[in-house]
TrEMBL record:
SUPFAM superfamilies: PA1994-like (SSF159275). It comes from Streptomyces marispadix. It comes from the Bacteria. This is Glycolipid-binding domain-containing protein. InterPro entries: Glycolipid-bd_prot_put (IPR009467).
């Protein structure tokens, strides 16, 4: 499946699970893409801000993620680096529990669900495993998140996938645009630009 280049910017409004907003800027590099994003929210009576910079290769595989977050408990920062073969370091420490993960999924971000969809370019209808380094919004802790994406037939020019994250007993139908960016993440976010 081929996708168009992403726009220069995109934005999502958080819905139901939290109130807030995410804004992202896409900047091509010589051999890939840099993504700069910021998301703010109120969730369960708590506020938080997460700023992130993702460096991707040309296939949308994550190379590095630099993330900072602020909440009532203070400022936190984390740096995530991969060797490109599914091995990860969090703040310079090897994290073997993350071996085999290929993407970074920020709890605060709807955009990061686009990473495995763009990277895998799925065309058949079988579920595909896409384990990710999952980064929590409130404290930036990183953990493994096993998840699957199953492509469905396109509808009205949009790509649809059945998404499941068994650890959260969560599943939904995600809708993506022709750039491979999330349009609708039921109960979480909707694209507004």
């Amino acid at each position: 499946m081929d996708f168009r280049d992403p726009p220069k910017t995109a934005a999502w409004q958080h819905i139901k699970a939290r109130s807030g907003f995410e804004v992202v800027y896409f900047e091509p590099s010589d051999d890939g893409l840099n993504i700069y994003g910021c998301t703010t929210a109120v969730e369960d009576g708590r506020t938080w801000i997460v700023d992130y910079q993702l460096e991707l290769d040309a296939a949308w595989a994550v190379r590095t993620a630099h993330i900072s977050g602020r909440s009532a408990s203070g400022l936190r920062r984390t740096s995530i680096v991969t060797d490109g073969a599914g091995h990860w370091q969090i703040d310079g420490r090897v994290s073997p529990d993350l071996d085999g993960c290929r993407d970074v999924d920020l709890e605060s971000s709807a955009m990061t669900n686009s990473l495995p969809v763009r990277r895998l370019r799925l065309t058949d209808g079988s579920p595909t495993q896409a384990p990710a380094v999952y980064v929590r919004a409130a404290d930036l802790t990183a953990e493994r998140l096993d998840q699957t994406y199953e492509p469905l037939s396109a509808k009205s020019g949009h790509h649809r996938y059945e998404y499941a994250a068994p650890a959260f007993d969560f599943g939904c139908r995600l809708t993506f645009d022709s750039s491979g960016l999330v349009r609708e993440y039921p109960g979480i976010a909707i694209r507004v630009m």
